[in-house]
């Protein structure tokens, strides 16, 4: 019996969760810039989403937040001293640097890495590459901590192969699994990997006019080479330029795949027909003859604007044991009549395995442009690989209760942008993270733990 499972690793929202509007091309982030955030509510909403998934029988794990404020970044930029000396000064002189150093955006672990299951790799190990996130300062500082965290959990070299992040340049801009989808007959079977990028095709001038693409074709091809994927296992697709300009900064804002199902908007891909043909051919050859099940949402049903506002496609599509699928959508989908009607009539009423739609409240994340799919990193593991994991990161009732109590102890329920300059917030954050690594049994993974004085 196949014991291979897909585990969703959700990011714990960090204590400095705020609305600074830092994300270029992310309309929700810009629209809510300056609002007062509630880190406690954000973290509890994330935990409630995880617990509901675990209770429904879907394997669920957690990834810890990153150390914020990132004093190492501020030190590299010439601000010397302890938080009491540095944070008020940066807040006064260069608030945009303070916002970047305090960003909690690593909560969206779909951007953490690209991961290939052992079933698809030449050496039968799980291959992991942290994303360089080079397109924005506040995300570019994540890669080194992402690598340390993933290496702490997946440390057994017999089962896991870790690669360095791609060179941090525009040529190799990489934003992780938010632009990568694995299609297959079932999680334990061979898969086909869809990599989506924003580079215009050589024979066209099709490029976004307003927003810069964040994933390059060079990065996608480099990831495939790192992980030993052949041409027969991969499809490289250009994201539709109109989608990027409409606020689709990652492919997972306009498309979600699971098993043989690809749920996507009409304008997700620049050359829709070619993408579908390539996926059909690869699946037929590689995935036990499994036919592709495309679920296309036309523009006349849901406009691009409505898709971005509701985050319909930034949903989780989860496999049940009987072969049916559950779609986990943000609460905003209920608020748009066209989106909700499409869910009821086209998705639930269509010829596809989607048999259930579940609504989750992740408003604190949604205001920064992150829905259910942004909050999770999908990792397919067989039984031996699950046994080889380190730490205590699989969510069960006991861990949920411990993490909920931990949030209640350490998180503020109100945070303004001005509060980010408060040195006390920095000390509160380090105390929280120090306790968290004990709860998760990960050992020392943060700079302040590895190099005392870097807090």
From TrEMBL:
Keyword Hydrolase: yes
Catalytic reaction annotation: N(2)-succinyl-L-arginine + 2 H2O + 2 H(+) = N(2)-succinyl-L-ornithine + 2 NH4(+) + CO2
Active site: 175, 250, 374 (nucleophile)
InterPro entries: AstB_sf, SuccinylArg_d-Hdrlase_AstB
Binding-site list for substrate: 20-29, 111, 138-139, 214, 252, 368
Record GO biological process: L-arginine catabolic process to L-glutamate; L-arginine catabolic process to succinate
UniProt keyword tRNA-binding present: no
Pathway recorded for this protein: Amino-acid degradation; L-arginine degradation via AST pathway; L-glutamate and succinate from L-arginine: step 2/5
SUPFAM superfamilies: Pentein
Enzyme class: hydrolase
Keywords associated with the record: Arginine metabolism, Hydrolase
Molecular functions per Gene Ontology: N-succinylarginine dihydrolase activity
Catalytic activity, EC: 3.5.3.23
Job of this protein: Catalyzes the hydrolysis of N(2)-succinylarginine into N(2)-succinylornithine, ammonia and CO(2).
Recorded family membership: Belongs to the succinylarginine dihydrolase family.
Quaternary structure and interacting proteins, as annotated: Homodimer.
NCBIfam families according to UniProt: arg_catab_astB, PRK13281.1
Listed name of the protein: N-succinylarginine dihydrolase
Organism of origin: Kushneria konosiri
Gene: astB
């Amino acid at each position: 019996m196949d014991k291979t499972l897909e585990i969703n690793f959700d990011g714990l929202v960090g204590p400095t969760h705020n609305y600074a509007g830092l994300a270029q091309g992310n309309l929700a982030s810009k629209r809510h810039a300056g609002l007062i955030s509630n880190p406690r509510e954000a973290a509890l909403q994330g935990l409630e989403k995880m617990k509901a998934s675990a209770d429904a029988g879907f394997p669920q794990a957690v990834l810890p937040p990153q150390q914020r404020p990132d004093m190492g970044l501020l030190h590299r930029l010439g601000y010397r001293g302890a938080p009491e000396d540095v944070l008020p000064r940066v807040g006064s002189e260069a608030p945009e640097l303070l916002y970047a150093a305090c960003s909690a955006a690593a909560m969206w672990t779909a951007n953490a890495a690209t991961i290939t299951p052992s079933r698809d790799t030449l050496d039968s190990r799980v291959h992991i590459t942290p994303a360089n996130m080079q397109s924005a300062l506040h995300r570019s500082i994540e890669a080194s901590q992402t690598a340390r965290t993933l290496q702490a959990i997946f440390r057994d070299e017999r089962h896991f192969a870790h690669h360095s992040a791609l060179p941090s340049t525009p040529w190799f801009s990489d934003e992780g699994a938010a632009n990568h989808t694995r299609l297959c007959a079932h999680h334990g079977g061979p898969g086909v990997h869809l990599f989506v990028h924003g580079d215009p095709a050589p024979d066209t001038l099709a490029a976004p006019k307003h927003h810069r693409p964040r994933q390059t074709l060079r990065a996608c091809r480099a990831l495939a080479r790192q992980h030993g994927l052949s041409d027969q296992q991969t499809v490289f697709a250009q994201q539709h330029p109109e989608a990027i300009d409409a606020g689709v900064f990652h492919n997972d804002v306009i498309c979600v795949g699971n098993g043989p199902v690809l749920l996507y908007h009409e304008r997700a891909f620049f050359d829709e027909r070619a993408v579908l043909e390539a996926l059909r051919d690869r699946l037929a050859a590689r995935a036990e003859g499994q036919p592709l099940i495309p679920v296309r949402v036309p523009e006349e049903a849901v406009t691009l604007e409505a898709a971005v506002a509701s985050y319909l496609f930034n949903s989780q599509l989860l496999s049940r044991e009987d072969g049916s699928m559950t779609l986990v959508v943000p609460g905003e989908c209920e608020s748009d009549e066209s989106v909700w009607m499409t869910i009821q009539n086209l998705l639930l009423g269509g010829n596809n395995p989607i048999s259930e739609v579940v609504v989750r409240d992740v408003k604190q994340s949604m205001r920064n442009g992150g829905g259910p799919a942004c909050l999770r990193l999908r990792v397919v593991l067989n039984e031996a690989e699950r046994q080889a994991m380190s730490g205590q990161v699989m969510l069960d009732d006991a861990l949920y209760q411990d993490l909920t109590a931990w949030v209640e102890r350490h998180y503020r329920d109100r945070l303004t942008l001005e509060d980010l300059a408060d040195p006390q917030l920095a000390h509160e954050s380090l105390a929280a993270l120090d306790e968290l690594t004990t709860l998760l049994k990960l050992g020392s993974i943060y700079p302040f733990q590895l190099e005392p004085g870097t807090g």
